[in-house]
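Treating backbone geometry as a discrete language has practical consequences that deserve illustration. Part of our work consisted of pairing the sequence of a single chain with a tokenised description of its backbone. What the numbers capture is local backbone geometry rather than side-chain detail. For completeness, the protein is quoted in full, as a sequence line and a line of structure tokens:
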Amino acid sequence: MEEKISYFNPRICVIGLGYVGLPLARLMSTQFQTVGFDLSQSRVDELLSGHDSTLEVYDKLLQEAIQNGFTCTTDIEQIRDCNFYIVAVPTPVDKNNNPDLRPLYGASETVGKVISKGDIVVYESTVYPGVTEDECIPVVEKVSGLKYNEEFFAGYSPERINPGDKEHTVEKIKKVTSGSTPEIGKIVDEVYASVITAGTHLAPTIKVAEAAKVIENSQRDINIAFVNELAKIFNKMGIDTRDVLEAAGTKWNFLPFKPGLVGGHCIGVDPYYLAQAAQRYGYNPEIILAGRRMNDGMGEYVADQVVKLMLKKGIQVLESKILVLGFTFKENCPDVRNTKVIDIIKMLEEYNANVIIHDPWADPTIAKHEYGVELQKVMPKGEFDAVILAVAHNEFRYLDLNQITNGESIVYDVKGILNPLYIDGRL
């Protein structure tokens, strides 16, 4: 066993206290002096009160961490004494699906204002290879006046948070680590290995770690795009796609992907980062972008299928009442970032249908602010001309459809969790 590097005593600062940053900061606080930094005072106030509205950290765990010294702040002076900065800010795309690095630039400026000689900054945000050292580090250098790999150092350890998953929590998922020099790589790896019970994998370079992360979600995106295309093909053939997948899944090496909407902050975004990086090197990534086009069009496809089923039953689409069950990007989670359910809703509204959205998990205020839609937390009463199950929240699994349909209504199951005897269509 290698001799432990003991001269570096980490004082952790996690910048960005969202779905990724908070669970990591809470975990780091079990072993190290840790402070969380966020630009939102309301977010900091909420966390200091002992509650996490993202539901990623149980209130009891958060309160215990605070009692043991963990704190959060918006005051940059409160993080100046740290020496191990972890950046966990979002990396979205803009309206043209180009990577938006502004949150990373802002976080790098923050680090540059407080970093000192000998300190380490580790990025966790998903990026394409080269962003850490070619885009972020120059910002830190410029603001701090310190020289990279001489006066301060860097690492990259891609986040692997799965929002809403209480089984595969941050400490139970193997962590890829890397450093700007071999020695720094060992220090970064040691810090993470202190809290990650699943273990770590030290990549040889920062660029390798960046590339590993961005292909994880691109691979899933492509596989889901494949089964989404199968769903369209088998629908035309009158074959149930899920019956086909169940039969094919009896082979030991068949990959169990299912058709569906692909949103969220990772799978629906990361392939665009890899695609742009490839294009910068003069290569047009055909499969990656084809997968993105397929998955980005599934909301419109679902709406189109529902309208066709309504017309076949003689149900007037104009001014019809359609209930959409679920608005978050995935089940049992309040995260509405990049949800593709909005594509179904917008398409149905083009037919002048009255769309009512029910989601017991999502925050109506956030949905209104981000998407301009009204959410109902409580199941609405009345009968609907069509019901679309868009998200597989546990609350919907044993739904009594008789309470919200009139016997002639269309029921479309995007997630394939309802009894097939009571549905008219599904992916």
Residues 319 and 353 are 5 Å apart (CA to CA). Confidence is low (pLDDT under 50) at residues 1-5. DSSP finds 13 helices and 14 strands in the chain.
